[in-house]
Amino acid sequence: MPSKPRLKPEHALATPGGFSIIKNLLIPVILLVALFAGLELLARTSFAERLLPLKSFGNYHTQFEIKLQKLEEFARVNDGVDVILLGNSMVNTGIDPQILAQQLSSSDQPLRIFNFGVEGLTVIPMADLATLLVDTYHPKTIIYFTEMRDYLAGNGDDVAQIFLSSDWLQYRLGKRGFLGWLEDHSAALQRLLPLRYWSRADFPDTWLQNMRRYSNTHPDGYEPEIQVSDFDGKLPDPHNTEDQKLFALYGNYAIDPARLEKLRSLIMLREKGTWIVVAEFPAYPGFYTYFGGEQVHADYLSAIADYTREQGGMFLVPISPDLIPLSGRADDHHLNEIGAKLYSGLLAQQLNILCQVQGICLEGK
């Protein structure tokens, strides 16, 4: 009777070579590292820049990231930046740095001026954004164009929270984290992040819109309002359904002390060697109807001017909005290309007078 076959011990089932740490673990890791290194090298070439011109740091605010990319290139080409114009969309479309620099007479050579107007941001994220810009680019001057909506409690809080929650932004502001570090240092990730929503149905349209915006934004950050609109200067109507929303949002205006504290932190950046100038953009007077009228606006201006001076900042008295014709306005608080050229020259005149009369001049490096 044949004997039953004997079971082989478990080690007899192993491959002839046995388990190899180098073969089974180390080689795949080396291949992955080599792949990532290759992607990094490729992402830093001119070919990758032409193929994927947009960069992203993972922030939802594409226009902000375009401005950041433009400023990085501007500082590289011009060996730094002297003056940063900071504010919301009113600044973005309303000031041409090239005209401003050409008409300023306070320096022997044109100042390096960059327009960092970002849509939808109030003084809350602007204070942190100004810190980032000062720590990174060390401009001699920041002119911050603030407005009444900046100090309205609750206005823009959701946008500010989402904007400031960016891992990259938090990393650059001093909060350490691996994802923020990776977004800051990986050129490959920065080139690929704009494609992160590729599976969405609206991605092609969004991509083309962002590319158009990138192309329309000048190297000095100015994004002209190229769409033609006929602004007639008509005052807001409390009986109009759309206007009623803004009356409800801006009515019973009061300055929030917590928002003033944010302005204070921005002004205190002077301790890092940057001169802070606070100004107001020349909106159409009818815009202030939503807030309660021109007297409410005048009271606001007086309060902000006094507070700025108390904190050691410089407040630039706004020009008369009547100097901007209706043909230069896109709506009741934005300027078109015509208005931007006009206001840029008027701002230069104002700064020239400040320099000649009071000896307070914008400086280059």
Strand content: 5-15%
Spatial arrangement of strands, main beta sheet:
2-1-3-4-5
Alpha-beta classification: alpha/beta
Give the helix level as a range of percent.
40-55%
Helices, by number, come to: 15
For the record, what CATH class applies? Alpha Beta
Description:
The protein is an alpha/beta fold and 365 residues long. The protein has one domain (60-161, 199-358): Rossmann fold (3-Layer(aba) Sandwich). Helix content is 48%, strand content 7%. The protein has 15 helices and five strands. It has helices spanning 21-43, 46-51, 62-78, 89-94, 97-103, 123-137, 157-164, 167-172, 178-185, 187-192, 203-216, 241-250, 257-267, 294-310, 337-358, and strands at residues 83-87, 113-117, 141-146, 275-280, 314-315. A five-stranded parallel beta sheet has the order 2-1-3-4-5, with helices on both faces. Strand 4 (275-280), helix 14 (294-310) and strand 5 form a beta-alpha-beta unit. Helix 5 runs parallel beside helix 15 and helix 6 runs parallel beside helix 13 (257-267). The longest helix has 23 residues, at 21-43. The radius of gyration is 27 Å and the shape is globular. 32% of the residues are buried. The model has no long low-confidence stretch (mean pLDDT 90).
Describe the secondary structure blueprint for this structure.
Blueprint: H1 21-43, H2 46-51, H3 62-78, E1 83-87, H4 89-94, H5 97-103, E2 113-117, H6 123-137, E3 141-146, H7 157-164, H8 167-172, H9 178-185, H10 187-192, H11 203-216, H12 241-250, H13 257-267, E4 275-280, H14 294-310, E5 314-315, H15 337-358
Parallel strand pairs: 1-2, 1-3, 3-4, 4-5
Helix pairs in contact: 5-15, 6-13
